[in-house]
Write a structure and sequence with these properties.
It is built from ten helices and 20 strands. The chain is an alpha/beta fold and about 375 residues long. Helix 2 packs across helix 8 and helix 5 runs parallel beside helix 6.
């Protein structure tokens, strides 16, 4: 038996027992050591704002339509940042005692089938807690950089940093996605990386990671355009990564771009985008807006830039920035038994976090 986090209804979160299936031939069993919480996507299910809860997703048409919701309560198995210890195996693909990164939701245990489940074995020199970024969250951010590279070089992209190397980069939002994206840009030798956010504590984290910062409460677009000059009547960021699910953040990102610059959008706007103003800078400066979703890499790059390569790029980043990420970005480590109240508090804004990790070894983690 194991336990799985269950959202019974908006605002109602609990742990329920889950009977594990038998290990299939070629499969293996995991005991979860760490499970990262996405304070963005996951909370949309706790709040009841996720579009899958109110409409039908047609994958063939790529449209949300009226009809039976694609997901109904109770919602179980959300979460995409898991690290597990292999406790039993029936395959030579992975050995007992190995630590692997996967996406199987907030569960204390899981039975995996390598023919259906993607997993990444973690190297011995990587902090296991940072492994929560390897399977999915890191590739999300790396895919943002890949879109910037494709925007500049098309299918001729050779390296992840081809779109930021030697260029001036702005990152809007100092949540986990923004902070990891900023680290990727710095690791790829951007000329300068500036993180913009409204929260001083989060800007302090960005500074600790090595980025420059500006507060969104002032006018960062004016500041950056005075600071970043490319030529006469050509000022601003070469590329902006928009990593905050607020429409005012998207509007701000567009304002910071140089003429004909590109904004790569990694945010999730559950309430639409009524505040976005397309009649001003977007139109008059000939800007480009690109959505970078982990479900797709840029056209023409799928063969050479699959999810495995993006995970490899993530491991490389974690080897370089792991100590600082562990110290400054992972702000909460809580036990699985505390998870229901923790998520409820986050959704109700009774508590704040940057990156929370669920673990049954909280004392060992220093949490």
């Amino acid at each position: 038996m194991g336990a799985v986090l269950s959202i019974e209804a908006p605002g109602e979160v609990c742990l329920v027992e889950e009977k594990l299936p038998g290990i299939p031939a070629g499969g293996f069993m995991l005991a979860t050591t760490h499970s990262g919480v996405s304070a963005g996507t996951e909370l949309t299910y706790v709040k009841g704002t996720n579009p899958y809860l109110s409409s039908t997703w047609d994958p063939a048409l790529g449209l949300f339509t009226e009809g039976t919701p694609s997901i109904a309560y109770p919602v179980r198995g959300i979460g995409y940042m898991q690290v597990g210890l292999v406790v039993e195996t029936r395959t030579r693909a992975v050995s007992e005692g190995a630590l692997v990164a996967m996406c199987y939701g907030h569960r204390t245990a899981y039975v995996a089938d390598p023919m259906a489940d993607r997993f990444v074995e973690l190297p011995d020199d990587l902090d296991p807690m940072l492994g929560v970024y390897v399977a999915h969250m890191g590739p999300i951010c790396a895919n943002g950089l890949l879109h910037a590279a494709h925007d500049l070089h098309g299918p001729a992209v050779q390296r992840l940093g081809d779109g930021v190397r030697g260029r001036r980069v702005a990152v809007v939002g100092a949540g986990v996605v923004g902070l990891l994206t900023a680290c990727f840009a710095m690791a790829c030798d951007a000329a300068e990386v500036v993180v913009v956010d409204e929260t001083p504590a989060r800007l302090a984290i960005a500074e600790a990671l090595g980025a420059n910062v500006l507060t969104a409460d002032e006018d960062p677009a004016m500041d950056l355009k005075r600071r970043w000059r490319h030529g006469r009547d050509d000022r601003g960021a070469d590329v902006v990564f928009q990593c905050r699910g607020q429409t005012r953040a998207l509007a701000l990102g567009l304002r910071m771009l140089r003429p004909q610059g590109t904004l790569v959008d990694l945010a999730f706007y559950t309430q639409g985008a009524e505040e976005v103003r397309l009649g001003e800078e977007f139109h008059h400066n000939g800007l480009t807006l690109r959505c970078a979703q982990i479900g797709r890499v840029p056209r023409g790059l799928a063969h050479s830039w699959d999810r495995e390569r993006l995970s490899h790029e993530t491991i490389s980043l974690l080897r370089r920035y792991g100590g600082r990420l562990r110290e400054h970005v992972i702000t909460d480590v809580v036990g699985f038994d505390e998870a229901p109240q923790f998520l409820s508090d986050l959704a109700a804004r009774r508590r704040q976090t940057v990156q929370a990790v669920l673990s049954d070894h909280v004392e060992d983690e220093g949490g």
